[in-house]
Amino acid sequence: MRFFATKIAFVLLLLLAGCFAPSKADIIKKAEGASTRADLESALGEPSEVSKIGPIEKWTYKAADGAVIFLLAGDSVTFEVTEGP
Questions:
Q1: In the record, which residues are listed under signal peptide (predicted)?
Q2: For residues 40 and 24, is the Cβ–Cβ distance under 8 A?
Q3: Along the chain (85 residues), what's the average pLDDT of each consecutive run of 10 residues?
Q4: DSSP state of 60
Q5: Cα–chain center distance at 47
Q6: Distance (Å, rounded) from C-alpha 14 to C-alpha 20?
Q7: For residue 43, which of 54, 53, 52, 33 has the smallest C-alpha distance?
Q8: Which of 56, 26, 58, 57 is nearest to 44 (CA)?
Q9: Could you say which of 1.10.10, 3.30.70, 3.30.1450, 3.30.460 is the CATH number of the domain covering 22-83?
Q10: What's the chain's average pLDDT?
Q11: Are the CB atoms for 73 and 32 separated by under 8 Å?
Q12: Beta-carbon contacts of residue 55 (< 8 Å; ≥ 6 apart)
């Protein structure tokens, strides 16, 4: 019985964590004015995903309503786009 209660508590914690995820608008607002890699990481923390396309890095931040993607060329933030609903 205790194992079942622990499982239920864990599932509830996961659901609550999803409720407090930032929205795309929140992420964009926090990143406003970030023009360098250091600025962006300082404003938003580490990205959920990082991938490289040649010299370009794609930083993805997951949001409650999709994701926000920033493209970095060298040290500069060059572009931002959202995906999802």
A1: 1-25
A2: no
A3: 63 56 95 96 97 95 96 94 85
A4: E
A5: 5
A6: 10
A7: 33
A8: 26
A9: 3.30.1450
A10: 86
A11: no
A12: 73, 74
